[in-house]
């Protein structure tokens, strides 16, 4: 087994005094794919925040074998999951950067989106 890149020992962390992780321990190997799997509210995002240094630990240690901290990019949709959009409308949203300031999409926008959807 490869040497661990990150070692967590008895880590505790949470939000506003509410513990989410308690006594968590793990060794994350270098040059390997590691999955973080669990139920909603089980601490997956908190763990990623701890690993990246965004969320401070309240107990325990996090040891990185390299300088600095790994990047942590939060990806959230600007549109609610229940917002009804077709695939074509979603692709057409990518055309908004090609229109001028305060301008509507031209007829070319939806046609261009349709072209991008063709096999």
TrEMBL record:
<feature type="domain" description="ABC transporter">
    <location>
        <begin position="24"/>
        <end position="65"/>
    </location>
</feature>
<keyword id="KW-0813">Transport</keyword>
<dbReference type="GO" id="GO:0005524">
    <property type="term" value="F:ATP binding"/>
</dbReference>
<keyword id="KW-0067">ATP-binding</keyword>
<dbReference type="InterPro" id="IPR027417">
    <property type="entry name" value="P-loop_NTPase"/>
</dbReference>
<comment type="similarity">
    <text>Belongs to the ABC transporter superfamily.</text>
</comment>
<dbReference type="GO" id="GO:0016887">
    <property type="term" value="F:ATP hydrolysis activity"/>
</dbReference>
<dbReference type="InterPro" id="IPR050153">
    <property type="entry name" value="Metal_Ion_Import_ABC"/>
</dbReference>
<protein>
    <submittedName>
        <fullName>ATP-binding cassette domain-containing protein</fullName>
    </submittedName>
</protein>
<dbReference type="InterPro" id="IPR003439">
    <property type="entry name" value="ABC_transporter-like_ATP-bd"/>
</dbReference>
<keyword id="KW-0547">Nucleotide-binding</keyword>
<dbReference type="Pfam" id="PF00005">
    <property type="entry name" value="ABC_tran"/>
</dbReference>
């Amino acid at each position: 087994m490869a040497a661990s890149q990150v070692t967590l020992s008895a880590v505790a962390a949470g939000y506003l005094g509410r513990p989410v992780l308690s006594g968590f321990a793990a060794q994350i190997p270098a040059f390997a794919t590691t999955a973080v799997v669990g139920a909603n509210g089980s601490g997956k995002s908190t763990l990623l925040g701890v690993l990246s240094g965004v969320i401070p630990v309240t107990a325990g240690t996090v040891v990185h074998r390299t300088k600095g901290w790994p990047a942590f990019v939060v990806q959230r949709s600007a549109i609610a999951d229940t917002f009804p959009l077709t695939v074509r409308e979603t692709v057409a949203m990518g055309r908004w950067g090609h229109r001028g300031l305060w301008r509507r999409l031209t007829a070319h926008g939806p046609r261009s989106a349709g072209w991008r959807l063709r096999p």
